[in-house]
Amino acid sequence: MNYISVFDVIGPNMIGPSSSHTAGAVNIALLAYQLFGRPIAKADFTLYESFARTGRGHGTDKALLGGIQGFGTDDVRIRDSYALADAAGIEYHFTWDDKTRTAHPNTVDIRLESPDGQVQTVRGESVGGGKIRIVQINDIDVVFTGVYSTLIIKHADRPGVVAHVTNVLSRHGVNIAFMRLYRDYKGGTGYLIVESDENIPDYFLEEIRGNELVHEIMLIQI
Amino acid sequence: MSMDFASGNELYQLCLEHGAAISEVMLKREMELGSVSEQSIRERLARSLQIMEAAVHEPLGQPRRSLSGLIGGEAWKVYNAGMAAGGRGIASLCGEALTRAIAYSMAVLEVNAAMGLIVAAPTAGSSGVLPGAVLSLSEIFGWSEEKQMDGLLNAGAVGYLLMRNATVAGAEAGCQAEVGAASAMTASAIVELMGGTPEMCFQAASLAVSNLLGLVCDPIAGLVEVPCQSRNAIGVANAFICAQLALSGITHPVPFDEMVEAMYRVGRSLPWELRESAKGGNAGTPTGCRLSAGGCAGACPEVCAAGADPNGIVSE
To answer: Which residues of A touch B153 (CB under 8 A)?
Structure first.
């Protein structure tokens, strides 16, 4: 969306009390949950700066724990997210780190672990009005907001991945709004992030997976 | 032709060209830019109104304390004291319409502070002003749901301009940008709903911005509770006053677009202590400090340690 809608002014519909410290926290955790795409056995949250200092009074912890259970910003279950996580057998831990400085004052690291030991870490920033951005996945710097349908492809940093992916997208008629590449080091692990205004159909993910350089695919639908 | 607009003046011209109310232009703009039908917009607005209805009424029947315990039960007190003795009790100074509006606006802030469901309008901290006015007046004048939606669309147009050409973030420009914006949006909406012209809507919005110019953002313990709740009451009262002035034909000499810019400039010149840092104003007083250390379950003791000495003198 590239315009200010009436629902950006009269909205978002949200569980209070704070758009940045509550609704934004839900949105970061919800994206982490969607990115992970697996059952969650264990969740660790590290809150920094303003999140660490005033997060308890704003219910930031409940918001984060609600987000990783798939609750949206207007889901009243957020209030009971501790009890619901207990009932679902999710182990959780919060670290309130008010010493470490981060690039943005409302920052959280989320580490999710599945029952079979798969791990994903995500760093998110709540930038105001419930809007957020993800700035790290598994310690690699990235940037995306979740406002668009987002395809995230973890791959080996070798020639041919971008051509392969854009070829598949073009054959299925997906218009790319934004596309960015990130990597840890030359020849290491890369992330290709593709954002689209439209729904990205998931039936062609298998085709993308067909390239041996592609390790993993994550898809966030708007 | 495009129904998009970037300033109050452009919006006003569109109203004149099409003989349309502000709400109508905003609806067309939303349909055009979002490529969505009127029906789908009205369905979403109905959901907004439903959440607002619940938020203005719930605390009157069932008061709840906030997470910190700083607020809870105020809406119920205001409503009952105001309505006591057939609306002629000692705490009924504001009359029925405004008493209702004040109680409703404070109720929304109670819901918000207790992790309930609200509609930010334009922010969570100022979410009581618009529903407080629209829903209380709807009860008194018997306005239909569709008319209430027009109120939200009108307010949305004014809020969009404030967001686009200034800011509605307390951290950027103080409470004038949050409650001030909500008050301007609401004043304009009331004027349209009462039958005033688009011109009168802009007069009301300009007056509302002007009246709250310079209002600082100074939340105790950094929480959206005190003084935010009673600021929503002043926001709705100011909207009533400015709507009444505009409907009476009173004008503000400075046009709306210039008032938006003035608000933004005043906001940027506010010191950091008075822009949601929880270090100045109410928050920076000895009592504000004490409450932030002990009153929010130990959530933010550093507010005191980092910002203010025991005598309440803010230092950096």
So the answer is: 6
As a whole number of angstroms, the distance between CA A98 and CA A101 comes to 8
Please report the pLDDT score of residue B292 as a whole number.
85
What CATH class has B8-274?
mainly alpha
Q: How confident is the model at residue B294 (pLDDT cuts 50, 70, 90)?
A: low
Q: Which chain A residues contact residue B67 at CB under 8 A?
A: 17, 56-59
Interface of A with B (CB under 8 A): 1, 3-19, 22-23, 53-59, 62, 74, 76, 78-79, 98, 128-130
Compute the nearest-CA separation of B93 from chain A (Å).
30
Backbone angles phi, psi at B160, to 5 degrees: -60, -45
The overall average pLDDT reported for chain B is 92
**pTM here?**
0.89
Spatial distance between the Cα atoms of B214 and B216, rounded to a whole number of angstroms: 6
**Tens digits of per-residue pLDDT, B7-37?**
999 999 999 999 999 999 999 999 999 889 9
- Mind telling me how many Å the CA of A58 is from chain B's nearest CA? 7
Q: Which of A151, A110, A115 has its CA nearest to residue A26? A: A110
With contact defined as beta carbons under 8 Å apart, do B225 and B68 qualify? Answer: yes
Q: Cβ separation of B297 and A57 shorter than 8 Å? A: yes
**Does the ipTM exceed 0.90?**
yes
Interface test with A, best of B112, B117, B129, B163 (most A CBs within 10 A): B117
Q: Which of B153, B155, B299 sits opposite A57 (nearest CB)?
A: B299
Positions of CATH 1.10.4100 in chain B: 8-274
* Closest Cβ–Cβ partner in A7, A59, A128 for B115: A59
Residue B160 to residue A4, Cβ atoms within 8 A: yes
Nearest-by-Cβ selection for B297 from A8, A22, A56: A56
CB < 8 Å & 24+ apart, contacts of B58-64: B58/B107, B58/B111, B58/B116, B59/B106, B59/B107, B59/B110, B59/B111, B60/B103, B60/B107, B63/B110, B64/B110, B64/B111, B64/B114, B64/B116
Confidence class for position A61, pLDDT limits 50, 70, 90: very high
- Specify the pLDDT at position B295: 43
Residue to mutate among A9, A64, A80, with most B CBs inside 10 A, is: A9
Query: What digits encode the pLDDT tens for the residues B75-93?
Result: 999 999 998 888 888 888 9
